């Protein structure tokens, strides 16, 4: 029975632990008629963002336009989790060491508005590929209540707009939806097991006294 209780307790702890430890970045490609966005981020980590533990989101913006022009890049956010963003632009692919020729800092420690309004970040020639990197922090001054914020990056050029977002919430704080019920149910199961062990011990003691 002790082994069974240990297994149950471990199962409850495993469910309660955030999934970020097993997370891996995912790549999403959004292809328009002209514009192309390649998004790379660890959304599992973003879904359990904690103060002091940022998540990086890379977006490569490119175009295949018939005529010379520019691509405008903007960002917007909606939600109730207060976020701080560092936003950098590199005109080459990011390496482990960073931007080969040096990145341009577009925002630093920026508390992004969460009203859904598009805020311009940069514009590049449509012959260039803009490698945007968003480092996203949960604002420690934003309170400790659970909440989420959806951040979106917009690219506009050659008569079209293409958007990529976190789709469902960036920086969810606290336990994921439904998790408290799982933990409570698991704790109740453990308590039931303990009560059962005590009950059996009491029965065994009574049996020995009768003998």
Strand content: 35-45%
Give the overall silhouette.
Answer: globular
Parts with pLDDT < 50 across at least 5 consecutive residues: 2-22, 171-192
Sequence of strands across the biggest β-sheet: 1-2-3-8-5-6
How many whole angstroms does the radius of gyration measure?
Answer: 25 Å
Let me know the number of strands: 10
Q: What average pLDDT do the residues reach?
A: 76
Could you spell the SSE succession in H and E letters?
A: HEEHEEEEEEEEH
| Structural class based on helices, strands and sheet pairing | alpha+beta
> How many helices does DSSP assign?
3
Give the helix level as a range of percent.
10-25%
N- to C-terminal distance: 25 Å
Major sheet:
6 strands, antiparallel
Describe this structure in words.
With 211 residues, this protein is α+β, with helices and mostly antiparallel strands. Helix content is 24%, strand content 37%. The chain is built from three helices and ten strands. The chain has helices spanning 2-16, 43-46, 179-210; strands at residues 26-31, 35-41, 55-63, 70-79, 83-90, 104-111, 119-125, 130-138, 149-157, 160-165. A hairpin with a 3-residue loop joins strand 1 and strand 2. The longest helix has 32 residues, at 179-210. Mean pLDDT is 76; it is low at 2-22 and 171-192.
């Amino acid at each position: 029975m002790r082994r069974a209780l240990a297994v149950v307790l471990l199962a409850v702890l495993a469910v309660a632990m955030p999934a970020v430890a097993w997370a891996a970045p995912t790549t999403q490609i959004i292809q328009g008629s002209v514009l192309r966005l390649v998004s790379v981020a660890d959304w599992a980590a973003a879904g359990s963002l904690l103060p002091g533990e940022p998540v990086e989101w890379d977006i490569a913006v490119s175009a295949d336009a018939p005529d010379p022009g520019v691509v405008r890049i903007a960002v917007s956010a909606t939600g109730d989790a207060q976020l701080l963003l560092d936003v950098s632009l590199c005109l080459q692919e990011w390496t482990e060491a960073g931007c080969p020729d040096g990145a341009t800092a577009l925002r630093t420690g920026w508390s992004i508005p969460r009203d859904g309004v598009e805020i311009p970040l940069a514009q590049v020639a449509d012959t260039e590929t803009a490698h945007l990197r968003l480092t996203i922090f949960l604002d420690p001054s934003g309170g400790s209540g659970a909440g989420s914020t959806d951040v979106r990056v917009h690219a506009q050029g050659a008569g079209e707009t293409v958007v990529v977002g976190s789709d469902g919430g960036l920086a969810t704080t606290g336990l994921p939806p439904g998790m408290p019920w799982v933990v409570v149910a698991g704790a109740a199961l453990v308590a039931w097991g303990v009560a059962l062990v005590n009950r059996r011990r009491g029965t065994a003691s009574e049996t020995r006294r009768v003998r």
